[in-house]
Structures are given as C-alpha cells and as structure tokens.
Write a structure and sequence with these properties.
alpha+beta; single chain; seven-stranded antiparallel β-sheet; 594 residues
C-alpha cells in the first residue's frame, strides 16, 4: 500500500518547530536592544541597524524566493545534475531500490559532471537499509601507491606534496564502492547501473550552465596533460559552452569494458594495467598490485546527539568528526533565541568551527596512525574544555588543537525509496578534474588525493606507501527517536566543497531543526564559510548590519560567491509518509520524486 498523504504542515512538530519564527525574532529583538545598552558607543549604532534588519528578517523568508520543496509519496532522488536525477528516478519507477538508483545516478554524474567526480575518485556512503533498521557506512577510498615515499618526493625536488599531476594520484575506490553497494544492498547488476552513463557518454549531452562555467575555469590546467586535453577540451582548446553537446567515446568504451568484466577490469585487469603503466610513465606511484589489492571497507559510522536528533558521519580519515564536534560544542547555547544568521548565531558557529577544525588538522588521519581515539575527541569532558575557549564577543585569530590523549570538487546525491531505504552518497576526484591526468584512451581523470598528505615527517598524516590520505568528502545522515523509542531515519543530506563540508552540514541541519525551514529553504539559505584565522566569507544574502556586527567582534568579513559555500542536496522523511527534498540552486541539479 502506498503511504497516505502528508499532513498540511509536515515540519510542524516538536522535533522541527515550524511556525515559531516570529517568537524567536521577538526574543532576538529583545537581545539586540539589550546589547545596544551594554556594548557601548562602538557598537550601539550597529545594534540599532541590526535591529531593523532582523525585524525585516522576521517577516520574510531567510532567502530570496527560489525553488519549491519537492514532495512525493513513494521515492525521491536529489542530485547536482538533472540528467542524473532523471536516471535515478527512472530506476525507482522501474522497481529498483534506493541503492540501485544512487549508483546509476552517480555513474551518470561521472559523465555529465566530470570535473567533480569519476571512477578515478573515491566514494563514501551512509545508508539506512529498512530491513536492518540502522545506519550503515561504506568507505570506498584508496590508499597511496606502494611507490609513494617521502624520499621519492624529496628526490624529485618537492618541498611539499604536489597538488596536481601524476605524483598526487592515489588508488581510486569509487568503482569498487559502486559494486559493493549493489552486491550487498542493490537489486540490479553493475552493468545495468552503468547503462544510462554509457549511453550519455557515447551519444553525448548538452552541458548545463554552472558545470560549463566550472569547466571553462580549468582549460589551462587541462592543456598540460595530453590525455586530459584530448578527452575534455573541444578541439583540444576550449571547454564546451552551456548547451553545447559533449561526447566522451573513450569513457563509453571504458564503461562497456567494466560492464562486461566487472570492477576487476580496473582492479587488476587490463584497464588497471593501462592505468598503472600510464601513471608510472608520467612519474607517478601506482602499481597494478596496488589496484589489485584495493578493497572497500564497511565501517561503523560515528554519531553525536543534538537536542532530540542524532547526526551520523563517516569515521576518520574523513572530516565528519568536525561536524559532530561543532554540534556538541554549540548544544548548550540558546541558538534559536539568537535568531537565524544573526551576528551572535554566526559568531558562535564560526568559533565552534575553528575549535573543531584545529582538532582535525592535528589529530585526524589514517586511523592506523592516529594518536588519539575518535571517541575521546567526542567525549563530554573533552568538549567541555573546548567550549570554554569560545569567547562570545571576540573572534579567535589562532586556534590550537585540544590536548586530547582543504579546495575540493565533489558530487553529492541522496535517494529514498518506497520501502523506506535511504542513502547518502558522495563521490569525488578532489580538485577540479582531480590530478589533471587522464591516461590516454581511458576517458576519465584520476584523483589527486595524495595531496592530502604532508611531507613533514612524524605526523599522523605524513606521506607513506599504502596509507589512507586525509579525506574531505563526507555524507551525512540524521536519525530521530520514533514512537517505539528506537532510532528512525529522518534526513539524508550533504554539502559539497572541501573544507566547507562539516561547517555546511551544521548550518543546513540547524536550518531545519531549529528554524523550521523546509528542505528547499534549508539548502538555499545564505551560508558562511570560515577559511583560516579571522577570514570569514558570507554570502551576499547576509546583510550589512550583520557584517558590521561581526566585524566589531574581530572577524575579517568579505563576500563569498555561491561556489565557495558548496552545493547541498537534502531528502527528509515526512511524518505522514513520503518524502520532501531540496536541491541547491548553487548547482545545476534538481530533486524529483514519484
């Protein structure tokens, strides 16, 4: 039986307090007025202008009118490119499940968004298999090549890890991840999942506008590699224009080879041999044995409670732990009363981010080399100590890690089906077009995850053979307590964009959880991105009064473009059955359901 229709206000529940925004802003207005009295003449004018600004915010949506949230009774797909969404939705309509649709959509994205993703990259996923009733994690990421040593890099004249080129290439894990997802939780074969991608690569497609703009920014880099130039540049000279058709026949042949032989074509077969030989011929460190030995890992996700929900992330070497630390640091503060994107609210989020990211840089790496345990970084006692360093009135210029015992090009997608299965999946080649290296004839670029290591010796993330690099790509998942007292799935979401991702996870989740935004409003709302030190990028939708108040707290505020704050996709399970979804207009994508 299909689920019944959703209630008139699906987000209006104790868990998602919609309809209370006016009361929150009334409380914030009182806080702003009080602040004007106690902050002195330096901030009184700012406080008065801010009061007018937040009064206006109380009457309007937090973002300019944009897309509507998509609601559907049975299944939902949200990706960063419409052709991928359509392919995934067709799988659901034909009886496939969420995992089948996710792998199909991910494969299509490797064709239509090649600067972001590919079988030359890595993959992570968080799943809610309805018949298991728990969150499951997959880490499908590769290690450094067996020839990648600090000595080899120093002998080549490097003073730091190369960010591009053959020496930055690590074992790609995405293809093995697709196969493992389908084998364990899917109902379709890998060959079936690849069919739409093969057709698009072979027959071509019109390039969408934002992707075309990103592509055009990488022409000079692509021209440095013969394979990349031949594969991705029209007549070897330029990127395709918006609406211009693009074909990748080499990639179509590669995908056909994989469809015929399975993932072993890359992991030890003839395709893998061509990749290893090509990379080594350019001075890289991959061997055929490295590819043959690669395996994905099913992992226990890490999580942290916040109010009455629980946020789930992938464990190290990913940076998801930073999002969990941010939430735990922020939990005692009256964030709702501060008001959405008020200076108080943004200041607290930014300072919590600084504390969490300092721990990332110092402690998170290949788990085999970490000197502290993940659970210690999330313990109450540890986070209480970290929270004491947060000054509510002054921005921290430098932030030390606790005394506990990076740019990225990525796709993120989410799928839910009529059986209640949900998947949060992220697939990336790291920088735009990864290493910038395409082994001629293969049609796909290889990631540059090796640039995540450091040449400095003796650190958890120091470069070494067969080692997992620090990872920026992280999917997210949220559960809440059901009527029976057990966890139930609620939100599958993610935010692309390198070091933006944990701070983006926190912003988008709080938009829904604390401020009652529907899925589309939550992903559209203006975001911040903190870089380092005092540098704080704010999207244009955050007003001048708020910027001035943050500047008075010591933040070096500037306007960040939409590309800086990543692109989000979000699917939410409705209380009355069915799904709501939002797709970020900062990307070309869309959400669609049936």
């Amino acid at each position: 039986m299909p689920p019944g229709p959703p209630p008139a206000s699906p987000l209006a529940s104790p868990r998602t307090p919609g309809g209370q925004r006016s009361r929150r802003f009334a409380r914030f207005a009182a806080i702003a007025s009080f602040a004007a009295l106690i902050l002195g003449p330096a901030l009184s004018e700012i406080s008065l202008s801010l009061f007018a600004e937040t009064s206006l915010m109380a009457q309007q949506s937090p973002v300019s009118p944009g897309r509507s949230t998509v609601y559907a009774p049975r299944g939902m797909v949200a990706t960063s490119q419409p052709l991928a969404t359509s392919a995934g939705l067709q799988v659901l309509e034909e009886g496939g499940n969420a995992v089948d649709a996710a792998v199909t959509a991910a494969a299509v994205l490797t064709v239509v968004e090649p600067h972001m993703t590919g079988i030359g990259g890595d993959l992570f996923a968080l799943l809610w298999p309805a018949d298991e009733g728990r969150v499951v994690g997959l880490s499908a990421h590769g290690r450094s090549g067996s020839l990648m040593t600090r000595e080899a890099l120093l002998e080549a004249g490097h003073e730091s890890i190369p960010t591009r080129g053959p020496e930055s290439i690590t074992v790609p894990g995405a293809l093995r991840g697709w196969a493992d997802l389908l084998e364990r939780y899917g109902t379709r074969t890998l060959a079936q999942a690849l069919e739409p991608a093969i057709r698009l690569a072979e027959e071509g497609f019109p390039v969408s506008p934002i992707i075309a703009g990103d592509w055009a920014g990488e022409v000079e880099m692509l021209q440095r590699d013969d394979g990349a130039r031949a594969t991705y540049l029209v007549e070897g000279e330029r990127a395709p224009a918006p609406g211009e058709w693009f074909r990748n026949p080499d990639y179509a042949r590669t995908l056909r080879e994989i469809a015929s032989e399975g993932p072993d074509a890359l992991y030890g077969g003839a395709l893998g041999a061509r990749i290893a030989e090509g990379v080594q011929g350019l001075g890289g460190f991959l061997t055929l044995e490295d590819l043959r030995d690669h395996r994905s890992r099913w992992v226990e996700p890490i999580s942290a409670p916040f109010r009455d929900v629980r946020l789930w992330e992938i464990p190290p070497p990913g940076q998801g732990i930073a999002a969990l630390q941010m939430l735990r640091i922020l939990e005692p503060y009256p964030l709702e009363a501060m008001g959405h994107n008020s200076p108080e609210y943004l200041h607290h989020l930014v300072e919590a981010k600084k504390l969490a990211y300092a721990d990332l840089a110092a402690h998170v790496a290949d788990p085999r080399f970490m000197e502290v345990e993940t659970r210690s970084l999330l313990s109450d006692a540890y986070l209480d100590e970290r929270r004491r360093e947060l000054d509510p009135w002054q921005a921290m210029a430098t932030t030390d890690p606790g005394a506990a015992a990076t740019e990225s090009e990525t796709i993120y997608l989410s799928v839910a089906d009529g059986e209640g299965n949900m998947i949060s999946l992220i697939n990336s080649v790291y920088f735009a077009f990864g290493s910038g290296v395409v082994v001629p004839g293969t049609g796909f670029d290889l990631q540059n995850r090796g640039s995540g290591f450091t040449l400095e010796p003796g650190l958890p993330n120091s470069v070494a053979p067969g080692k997992e690099p620090f990872h920026t790509i992280i999917p997210a998942f949220v559960t809440r307590t059901g009527a029976d007292g057990r966890d139930e799935p609620w939100i599958s979401f993610g935010v692309m964009g390198g070091a933006m991702q944990p701070q983006g996870h926190v912003q988008v989740l709080l938009n829904v959880l604390l401020f009652g935004m529907d899925p589309q409003a939550a992903v559209e709302a203006p975001r911040f991105r903190h870089y380092s030190g005092l540098r704080l990028g704010l999207e244009a939708g955050i007003g001048e009064g708020i910027r001035a108040a943050l500047g008075a707290r010591g933040h070096d505020v500037f306007t960040a473009g939409p590309g800086a704050v990543g692109g989000a996709q979000l699917i939410l399970r409705l209380d009355g059955g069915g799904w709501g979804a939002g797709s970020d207009p900062r990307k070309d994508g869309q959400a669609a359901g049936h």
